[in-house]
């Protein structure tokens, strides 16, 4: 009976990281809005830690081989990814079989290319598969050229010229490229996204055409590419989806109420928001420079400092800035670019250097801190002051 209600049944396989789950959840909501049944697949280890809000999306789990702790339980990143490939492939196949026997068979699989074996499993069942790249087109293009051997590593050129991109310096490339060999397991997973992408029926990218015209046009010559961004909650975009105010699945426990109450007590456009995401780890000196720079700016600020990073704060900082700042372990964060908010980019690793290059020099939406990811507290103060002056 359920089979006749929906136009199709799409299985969405996510990579177990917040920045990958968010866009795929938003894409899934829009499919549901158009009458498609969607089942989002997450790992058991992620399911055990997630704060699950009410959602119209069905959730199923597979195993990464480390159900109690995920990556933190594995002896190394390489061991985790290898075991995830073996166990994940098997449990994904079992899930597809279970759904078929339950009377609601899967019609297609959308998978994160960080898990290329997801496409292999789909093809084993004769299902069409769509690769969903959660990073920008320009970043995907860089990794593609590394995979093809066109981008020679380690880098020796002082200027990198790639189709669809402006001239780039080595420090503008993702950290796994310009600091080749620093994280070999992560480098492998990023370039191996392209190991079987030619077999995908569609290639979806988390961007929109006007943002990256040149590189989108170039990549569309290689694959059946579609831009499906921006993948943010509808209330911040087109308001087509009622009550779509958040992403829906959070690995961290957000301090939503505290943040909203505090923000409502301040004038619009008067707050500096500081966050480095769910993965990046800053050095003690970087956090100290940022802290005193914020204090010297005399601006009110909302700073997300994960629990594991909290001990790096200067001892007297929270007390000295209690009237100006709010410190939380996590809060919902939306892409600032979509809301026109200027940014100070302080890239740490992975694709952040490339994003920072585009934020400052291509999209003209902010400033980039020094290439080493550090800046004196005076630099931070000046960056904040300049952005406030021109915003």
UniProtKB/TrEMBL annotation:
The keyword Nucleotide-binding does not apply. Pfam families: UDPGT (PF00201). GO terms for molecular function: quercetin 3-O-glucosyltransferase activity; quercetin 7-O-glucosyltransferase activity. Keywords: Glycosyltransferase, Transferase. Belongs to the UDP-glycosyltransferase family. This is UDP-glycosyltransferases domain-containing protein. It comes from Carpinus fangiana.
């Amino acid at each position: 009976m359920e089979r006749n209600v929906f136009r199709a049944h799409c299985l969405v396989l996510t990579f177990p990281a917040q920045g990958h789950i968010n866009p795929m959840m938003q894409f899934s909501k829009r499919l549901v809005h158009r009458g498609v049944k969607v089942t989002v697949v997450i790992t058991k280890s992620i399911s055990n830690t997630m704060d699950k809000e009410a959602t119209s999306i069905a959730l199923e789990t597979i195993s990464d081989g480390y159900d109690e702790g995920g990556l933190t339980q594995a002896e190394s990143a390489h061991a985790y990814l290898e075991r995830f490939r073996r166990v994940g492939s098997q449990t994904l196949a079992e899930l597809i079989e279970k759904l078929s026997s339950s009377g609601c068979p899967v019609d297609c699989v959308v998978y994160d290319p960080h898990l290329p074996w997801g496409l292999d499993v789909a093809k084993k069942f004769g299902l069409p598969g769509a690769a969903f790249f959660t990073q920008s087109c320009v970043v995907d293009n860089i990794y593609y050229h590394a995979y093809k051997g066109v981008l020679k590593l380690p880098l020796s050129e002082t200027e990198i010229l790639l189709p669809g991109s402006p001239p780039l310096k080595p420090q503008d490339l993702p950290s796994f490229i310009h600091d080749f060999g620093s994280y070999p397991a992560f480098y492998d997973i990023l370039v191996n996204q392209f190991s079987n992408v030619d077999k995908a029926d569609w290639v979806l990218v988390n961007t929109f055409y006007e943002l990256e015209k040149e590189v989108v046009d170039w990549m569309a010559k290689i694959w059946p590419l579609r831009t499906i961004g921006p993948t943010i909650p509808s209330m911040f975009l087109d308001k087509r989806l009622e009550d779509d105010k958040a992403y829906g699945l959070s690995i961290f426990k957000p301090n939503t109420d505290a943040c909203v109450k505090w923000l409502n007590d301040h004038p619009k456009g008067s707050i500096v928001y500081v966050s480095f995401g769910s993965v990046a780890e800053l050095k003690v000196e970087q956090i100290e420079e940022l802290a005193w720079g914020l204090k010297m700016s005399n601006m009110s600020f909302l700073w997300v400092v994960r629990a594991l990073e909290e001990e790096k704060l200067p001892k007297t900082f929270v007390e000295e800035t209690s009237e100006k700042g709010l410190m939380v372990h996590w809060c919902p964060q939306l892409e600032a670019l979509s809301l026109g908010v200027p940014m100070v980019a302080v890239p740490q690793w992975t694709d952040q250097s490339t994003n920072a290059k585009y934020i400052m020099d291509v999209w003209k939406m902010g400033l980039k801190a020094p290439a080493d990811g550090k800046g004196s507290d005076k630099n931070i103060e000046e960056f904040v002051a300049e952005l406030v002056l021109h915003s």
